[in-house]
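User: Second chain of the day. Same drill as before.
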Amino acid sequence: MEAFMAMNGYVNGIVWGPPMLALLVGTGIYLSVILGFPQVRYFGFMFKEVFGKLGKKSGGEGTISSFGALSVALASTVGSGNIAGAATALHLGGPGALFWMWITAIFGMTTKMTEVALAVKFREKDEAGQWRGGTMYVMEKALGQKWLAWLFAFFTTFAAFGIGNAIQANSTAQALELGFGVPSYVSGIAVAVLVALVIIGGLKRISDVTTYLVPFMAIFYVIGGIAVISMHADMIPQAISNTVYYAFNDPMAMPGAVAGWSIKLALTKGVARGVFSNEAGLGSAPMVHATAITDHPARQGIYGLFEVFMDTIVICSITCIGILTTGSLTARPDLTGAQLTLTAFQSVLGTPGVWIMSLGLAMFAFSTILGWYWYGETGAVYIFGLKITPVYKVLWIAVCVVGAWGGGGQFLTNIWDLSDTMNGLMAAPNLIALLWLSNEMRKIVKDFDEKRKKGTLS
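Assistant: Same format as last time:
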């Protein structure tokens, strides 16, 4: 295991090295420029589109509603990365890590919009008549690069077990044990049973469950986080000031700085955890957005903008600012991940704070397991066909138990490291495809704008 993890560390250093970070952020910047900064132009329209059409039927083809697709995608992105991952970034890189998470999210909004729109444009129906789409289909149909499509599908199939299952099951078990003393094996079995009851019904049942669960859990956590921050409202300006200042200046000069903080770590951990959280550039969320009922690829792309905004700009920021305003980051340098966030909540709200954080993390992680199942299944179906779905379901349920029962410490560290590596391996071919098809995306956006101007699209 030591030799394997050492090899993983070497690969991780490559896939998350300066070239990959530059490619991730650079792709978002490039797409933002050539598309006219859609994260700014469509900002108001984004809220109108998402909230103005709740419960309304959309025109066009697809399997589930646009909001249902957004709910599944948010279920996947809003997970342990928003609580444990964001806190880990601060622990390793200092306050400046939050600034780089913001930068990654701002330009990642355009990256996600592009992924989603292209996935809708090049989607197709499988043998059962169900819509399938995503980066692998884009690579095959638009680029004619089936080998690259197969490689992406392979990485997705196996990455899902780590980022979307084992980590989330482990986070759920830890949250319930920290907050309520529930043994990890009990959590593992309970999660496995609940997951089985949902995924056995396929995408439509996953969509139905997440459509109710995601808004509830987001509101629940946001209200709790705002309560924590408001108790130290006088510290908000200082927290934001430190976030910006120490993104560019030596964080070791900060009072109470933790040994090891550096601008480089703030940047790398901020970008890596930001991508882990909102998945912009990974090519994961397009696999469910491609199933949405919509009348234009760019319209569903707007939901991709909202997804990144909600995940990182709102939820991750609440976690990080809560930690910074309470002083937990420097007061408890021995803590990281979910325990650091829990300490911040507990210091202000006491036992109720522990319950809020624990339940929030458990719901976030559980919903991620549901959403990422569809991603993993889509990758497996692309490679092996529909016959693989029963096998994949059984394996998925089994990993829920193993992940929850694995404990913390080195096990969790290894899973996080492996997931980071697999994320990078997914991102590389996806980003290449996005850049390759940037002119196609420009045509899609131009067509959308012209049709809206003429009134043929609302």
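The CA atoms of residues 346 and 352 lie 7 Å apart.

User: Great, on to the next one.
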